[in-house]
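Please decode residue identities from the backbone states below.
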């Protein structure tokens, strides 16, 4: 299987074994993924991580305990105790479901208190821009729904796309100061 693998360096390999699905899990064929700051930190050695990075992705379920999920386009929610799948919004917007949900988590700070009418977001990075664009939704389910409805359009944040075979270049590009969202396309 073609994969970007982190270790002492970021390497694209063709001989990564396919993952095995355990009971209660779904096996997902990734079609599109986004490079986030966590991926960049892991590539720089954070937490001694070694393996295949990625939690911002869109894919299709190829195996699961529930056959109704087979063939469904999904995104993952890493903020749950275990990753949970959500049916994906249409098109490339779906890759933004997890980062948008993370950005909208800042709104949880206002729980039980009136939200201010105006706010200042310091920083013009990807997370700050998503906070500004999506300040009307909430957790993952709502983030997916808002993306599906088109109420938030994160696509202007996409700076570049790379094929999976050049994922190491995508990671380097994403690490440039001021880079916006970098996407990686997986082969069909």
């Amino acid at each position: 299987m073609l994969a970007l693998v982190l270790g002492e360096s970021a390497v694209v390999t063709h001989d990564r074994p396919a993952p095995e699905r355990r009971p209660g899990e779904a096996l997902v064929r990734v079609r599109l993924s986004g490079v986030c700051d966590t991926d960049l930190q892991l590539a720089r050695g954070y937490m001694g991580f070694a393996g295949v990075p990625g939690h911002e992705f869109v894919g299709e379920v190829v195996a699961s305990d529930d056959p109704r999920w087979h063939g469904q386009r999904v995104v993952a929610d890493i903020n749950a105790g275990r990753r949970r799948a959500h049916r994906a919004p249409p098109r490339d917007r779906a890759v933004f479901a997890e980062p948008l949900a993370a950005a909208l988590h800042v709104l949880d700070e206002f729980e039980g208190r009136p939200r201010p009418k105006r706010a200042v977001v310091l920083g013009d990075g990807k997370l700050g821009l998503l906070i500004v664009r999506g300040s009307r939704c909430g957790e993952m389910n709502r983030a997916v729904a808002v993306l599906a409805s088109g109420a938030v359009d994160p696509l202007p944040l996409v700076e570049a796309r790379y094929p999976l075979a050049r994922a190491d270049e995508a990671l380097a590009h994403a690490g440039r100061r001021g880079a916006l969202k970098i996407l990686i396309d997986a082969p069909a």
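Observation: The chain is about 20% helix and 25% strand.
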